[in-house]
Description:
Chain A is α/β, with parallel strands linked by helices.
Amino acid sequence: MKILVCISKTPDTTAKIAFTDNNTKFDTNGVQWIVNPWDEWFALVRAIELKEADPSITLHLITVGESDADPIIRKALALGGDEAIRINASPAESQFVAHQIAAIAKEGNYDLVLTGKETIDHNGSTVGGLIAGETELPYISLATKLDRQGNTLTITREIEGGQEVCEVEIPVVVSAQKGMAEARIPNMRGIMAARTKPLKVVEPIATNEYTQVIQFELPAPKSGVKLIAPDQVEELVRLLHEEAKVI
Amino acid sequence: MSILVYIDIANGKIKKSTQEVISYGADLSAITGEKLIGVAIGNCQDQLEELGSFGLQEIVHIGKDSNRNAPAETDAWAIATLAIEKKSATLLFSHSLSGKLLAPLTASRLKAGLVSGVISQPDLTDGFIVKRSVFSGKAFAKVAIKTPTRVLTINPNSYPVKQRNGTAEVTNIALEGPASRVKSISIEKTSGELPLTEAGIVVSAGRGLKGPENWGMVEQLAGELHAALACSRPVADAHWRPHHEHVGQTGVAIAPNLYIAIGISGAIQHLAGVNRSKVIVVINKDPEAPFFKAADYGIVGDAFEVVPQFTAALKKVKAS
Ligand SMILES: Cc1cc2nc3c(=O)[nH]c(=O)nc-3n(C[C@H](O)[C@H](O)[C@H](O)COP(=O)(O)OP(=O)(O)OC[C@H]3O[C@@H](n4cnc5c(N)ncnc54)[C@H](O)[C@@H]3O)c2cc1C
Ligand SMILES: Nc1ncnc2c1ncn2[C@@H]1O[C@H](COP(=O)(O)O)[C@@H](O)[C@H]1O
């Protein structure tokens, strides 16, 4: 079995969000970069667990990004995985990213493509489904549990108002979320090993442009908090009713 | 030409977020003159006709085996096929759990540009430009869609529901297309509570409550407000509350009309999931708690005193 885990580079959760060039570019000044939490904590760790249970599994990591994504993919490799692939291009839009990953997934005959639920910067929740569309593989979204018996996967996913347990034969694309695994911290041996694991750089395939970000905007700043004395809770109720009109 | 809206059904009920998406479609159709068509897949026929009052002009109901009611790849196939037949240039889903499965699969089939998490009507003056929420609610992006067919998912609670005068004609067809390769084994429903993402009011509490045994007063306040419950991440991690109540950057992202945060410090990762709320009330005993900077109303005080008084004050208003 061959597993491909999609790894995205995102700003740290505490990063200050600002824009430059007339609000057309994310201001990367002083920003720390991390592996997207959903990819690291759930998709990658579950893939590593599957490999621990069955060492014959080949586990590859993939990212679409420029060379500044190398340290991030190495961080992911420090947790586990045999090698990484970087598609050498800026991940400008989700269709582009999905087409690149789909091309590798098809060419490499991967049996399980795992993505995170969403990226914490783009917040699309779309790349997994688009990869499934391009590769014409079944797609299971927002999985909270994944078990394997040979070529059959039993997966629990979140649906409106509950959970669905489903069964699917590989090959398949799955997006992973909380519940799938417990986050791990890389150890020294993993970090050392990651330095020498192969990182293949592949040039992107040509695709059409589907969408284009024109400009970013920051929300209007809050006008400031109105403080109410703790013994005046009735006044808060009045304000919520008459001023804010939310109750 | 038409606009196609996916009608989301959960546990046999049409979702509030679907009313929002229909309202979005109706406002768009008023500008473009395209027909507004709804597609529903599953067991819901008796509720469909009333959707005309939100602006749908036609509804296609695709019947489906009731114990296979969860959205599946065949549904995306059916939606895409219908979109081609009805010449739909714009397809609308909610950015819900169903939309997150179906929208990308449908967009792929139609080779459509896909924008998720849309929060406002498109600007049509120069192409088709929509605004979406990015950076976990800390910013917005204006995105131009370049393809002739477009798929949008609309963020729940970001578009007002409007009642209109109208009726929709319902046609019934059978679900065709390739069988889903994903076999549904069982569906487990969570209790009848309102999904967090759709709740108009959310009452949330954090580590300041000291322990799970103290949630009674929070539940009472929520009950009085018909609100959904939420919590901060450490609270879910400590199993004081179930994981699905964890809101924030690595939990559920919400945008209710009113968010009440009790004993939550307001860490940046928590704010990232709740900062799109229209009105934020913070109750915290520490005047320096960062949450006050993001709040509209605040009480600096002990939750164990303030929360029961809050519930009592609401009861009093109701009684008068
Ligand atoms: C990568 C990453 C992702 C994260 N994602 C999330 C996320 O998605 N969601 C999330 O919530 N957190 C997240 N966190 C954790 C976050 O950084 C904070 O640690 C967390 O939000 C704090 O929870 P809290 O406010 O409940 O607890 P605390 O920070 O301990 O705050 C408790 C608050 O209660 C107040 N208090 C105490 N007693 C009382 C009383 N009697 N009455 C009134 N107030 C009282 C205190 O003044 C304090 O402000 C994440 C962290 C990281 C590193
Ligand atoms: N540039 C990228 N490279 C590799 N994987 C990505 C990239 N962008 C997104 N993904 C994967 O797709 C998932 C969903 O991303 P998104 O649709 O952007 O929210 C992420 O959790 C990643 O697993």
